[in-house]
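Usage example:
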Amino acid sequence: MDPRRFTYAFNVRLHDTDAAGRLFFGHLFRHAHDAYETFMTQVGLPLERLIREGELLLPLVHAEADYHRPLRQGDRVQVVLTIDEIRARSFAVAYRFEMPDGTLAATAKTVHLRINRDGSPAAGLSDEIRNAILPYLHEDHPQ
Amino acid sequence: MDPRRFTYAFNVRLHDTDAAGRLFFGHLFRHAHDAYETFMTQVGLPLERLIREGELLLPLVHAEADYHRPLRQGDRVQVVLTIDEIRARSFAVAYRFEMPDGTLAATAKTVHLRINRDGSPAAGLSDEIRNAILPYLHEDHPQ
Amino acid sequence: MDPRRFTYAFNVRLHDTDAAGRLFFGHLFRHAHDAYETFMTQVGLPLERLIREGELLLPLVHAEADYHRPLRQGDRVQVVLTIDEIRARSFAVAYRFEMPDGTLAATAKTVHLRINRDGSPAAGLSDEIRNAILPYLHEDHPQ
Amino acid sequence: MDPRRFTYAFNVRLHDTDAAGRLFFGHLFRHAHDAYETFMTQVGLPLERLIREGELLLPLVHAEADYHRPLRQGDRVQVVLTIDEIRARSFAVAYRFEMPDGTLAATAKTVHLRINRDGSPAAGLSDEIRNAILPYLHEDHPQ
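Running the assembly step on the lines above writes:
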């Protein structure tokens, strides 16, 4: 069965760009996380609940991005989000940033680790988290 | 007696600028607050202590800025911070953003209100706060 | 005749908040400008065109905001944008940040000045700009 | 011969943190690039010159970071920057984010590609760039 597809769209704003006229690379991660927050809310795991319950239990431990073509102010970008990998205590999220004509502008990946309140790694992802994100697991990476 | 003078310096970075080649106006407030944080630490009121003690008790209730000349990447800027006004439950901080030749690039102002933990306005600024900032009160605004 | 009403909505994201658990004040201006960019595109004056034509001819010369209640991650905010004032060479934009229940969370204002390419103030706003924004002029401020 | 060591320091500010009380991951890249800009200026390649000469000829094509421990407001962080690799048309910069006690808080890496004005990959890094960064090449990666 094909994994479910989650998409999120945004416009590149003036404050996203820098004096070189293109998106400042670091801001791509802000948009990636906006997509991730929206995704987590949709699958029933809104970050504000996790944080308000006392602690963010899924800190980001790795992030990376590849930039294929410049993004400029006014560009409309669609983010296609999939779960790239689910491991015992962590999961990886993959992002494709696409232009309206389907051109790939950038890709990104973030890795989220389940920890205990004292900061130590948790025994494992909770079933709630695992079940929520599993339908979005990319087919090339079977669990 | 002249008020004490607090200064803070920063460089305009690529991510501060936008595609128009100048500092994006909203980022000026980030630099103003950096100066404010540094000032508060110097006068013995580090924000991290206030926040870690349970709540930020001095939320910002007003901010404003005037932009006199464009700031560009690589510019060195000095921020001159003074206390503009001290009222019963709030105080105002004034910022002058100056170029190395003394030219005024921008000014800003922020107003900070003492509140209780439940969000209601506090009876007044604590003596600790009042005494810490009083030496920096601008002379045109006697208490 | 009532002025036209322009609205823009956004969600408060994790990166909008700070360790005090609420929107960092400076980020409100980023959202205000997002609303302004969207507005300018709708009225036929997309900023990317102005910038790509060689220079941003409408630099922001003043900004201010008042914060009425804290905004937290996950909050849905509606921005109501009106033109507050039109002068010979500048115009002011007013923003109301409203919660879903209509509560006012914050207000903001930005002033934009028409300049020439060399940085000197222009003779006046162009008719194109004036005509585009006039329908949104707030009724309490007749031209 | 040991490579030269370039260091850059910053304080974690309130706007760097989020409601979870720690540095928002994406902001690490802003600080990494601040270190890079300062480094480039020191080695005689200030970015503002490259950009003002008409175009940023060294766009960032890859970025990554690993987060080892949370950074909080008020933390003083030292960035140790080295050149990780020099290839025909690109170079990689490595960053170590260290606490005052020497603890490693995070690492990051950025890859910069020389391109022509039309966006096509350049024939190679210029001698000016190669000679400027070579003294900082990490010893584990001989050219």
